[in-house]
Amino acid sequence: MTNIHIKRIAYKLRRDLFTINNFVILVAFFIVIGWVVGSINALERNYALQQKIVHKQKELKLSKLELATLQYEQNYYKSDEYKELAARDSLGLVLPGEKVLVLPPNSKKATNFDKKFSVKLDKIPTYQPTKVEQWIDFFSGKNVPELN
User: Is residue 66's pLDDT more than 80?
Assistant: First the structure.
């Protein structure tokens, strides 16, 4: 190539490609891309934080339920009914007119039947929503925790 050809190509590039309008459009494009990436990162962070809040609220409800159960159990152990049952069980006491009924142990057939048809709770599958369903729930506000 000759020097004139190179100058013509450089002139065409400066006149057609490297204009102020194209530079402004390129800068605007990079600003938009940066904004989109930042928005997506913020959405992902908010979604992860919301899931942590939901998990912590479930733990709180479970802890409150356990506390209530323990309080009921404590009240039961303080009751006269429990004291009477514990005395009957440990000391073998009975009320007047009561009779004791002693049953033989289960047969092998009954034990096998119970093992065969008993339901194992740990084998019951739980439903796990897909990522798309989780995002739809997030945007629609279904799993938004209630603030008290």
Answer: yes
Tokens standing for residue 50 = 């919301």
How many whole angstroms separate alpha carbon 134 and alpha carbon 130?
6
Q: Do residues 76 and 82 touch, judged by C-beta distance below 8 A? A: yes
**What's the whole-model pTM score?**
0.47
Residues in the chain: 148
Better-scored residue on pLDDT, 17 or 52: 52
Contact 143, 57 (CB under 8 A): no
Q: What is the DSSP string of 76-140?
A: HHHSHHHHHHHHHHHH----TT-----PPPPPHHHHHHHHHHPPPGGGS------HHHHHHHHHH
